[in-house]
Design goal:
globular, Zinc-finger
């Protein structure tokens, strides 16, 4: 993803996404989070491990806590990932096996 104007010290390109978890104490009454899809993508302008534990804004706008040890390419393909984050980061679900 390319950003036209980025602040000093930040890269213009997002090279990776960290994984964020929508914590119940961070949910908004005006925009309740779906408990079925608590995992979100967070733009990582530095290594995701450095963001571990920080509260950040997800790609979809949800407020989440970053889990730096998780990989968005893996978590984002799962059924508990936010559909909007998955669409915005172009993460595809794996095809099911033919039986």
């Amino acid at each position: 993803m390319r950003f036209p104007r980025c602040g000093t010290g930040h890269d213009h390109d997002v090279e990776s996404y960290a994984v964020g978890f929508a914590r119940p104490d961070r949910w908004s009454r005006e925009r309740p989070a779906e408990q079925a899809t608590p995992w979100h993508a967070v733009e990582a302008h530095r290594p995701p491990s450095e963001l571990d534990g920080e509260v950040e804004l997800a790609v979809c706008g949800a407020i989440v806590q970053v889990w730096g040890a998780q990989d968005w390419q893996r978590v984002g393909a799962g059924r508990t990932a936010c559909a909007e984050c998955r669409a915005r980061t172009a993460v595809q679900r794996p095809l099911s096996r033919v039986r």
